[in-house]
Amino acid sequence: MNTDMESSTREGTIWRRGLYMLLFAFCLWVAKFVVGVVVVFQFFSVVFTGSTNQKLLSFGQSLSTYHYQILLFLTFNSEEHPYPLSDWPEGAPLPPEEQ
To answer: What is the reported pLDDT for 1?
Structure first.
């Protein structure tokens, strides 16, 4: 009987994770759109000013890290929930074993 209870608990956990996966798949879709916008703005920044926009560089790096965190979660390489259930990432991504 104890194994039935453990099995149902695990099933509840996997279904909850499935809902989180849907949420983060949607967040990934939105983030990909935002990356496209950043790419266009950065391109025109270079065309018109001759240099990259440092704020866009920083945001692009953190957005890339966010993509990486979502993909780690979606592929079961991480149990840590990405933003909006944790802090927004800053800087380069950490390998999965260091997160």
So the answer is: 44
Q: CB–CB of 67/60 below 8 Å?
A: no
CB contact at 8 A, 35 and 60: yes
In this prediction, residues 80-98 reach a mean pLDDT of 80
Q: What is the model's pTM?
A: 0.78
B/e letters for 30-39, b = 16+ CB within 10 Å, e = fewer, are ebeeebeebe
Task: Write out the two tokens for 80.
Answer: 């840590």
Q: Is the dihedral of CA 72, 77, 80, 85 positive or negative?
A: positive
Is 95 in contact with 69 (CB distance < 8 Å)? no
| Cα 58 to Cα 61: distance, rounded to the nearest angstrom | 5
Secondary structure (H, E, C), 2-59: HHHHHHHHHHHHHHHHHHHHHHHHHHHHHHHHHHHHHHHHHHHHHHHHCCCCHHHHHH
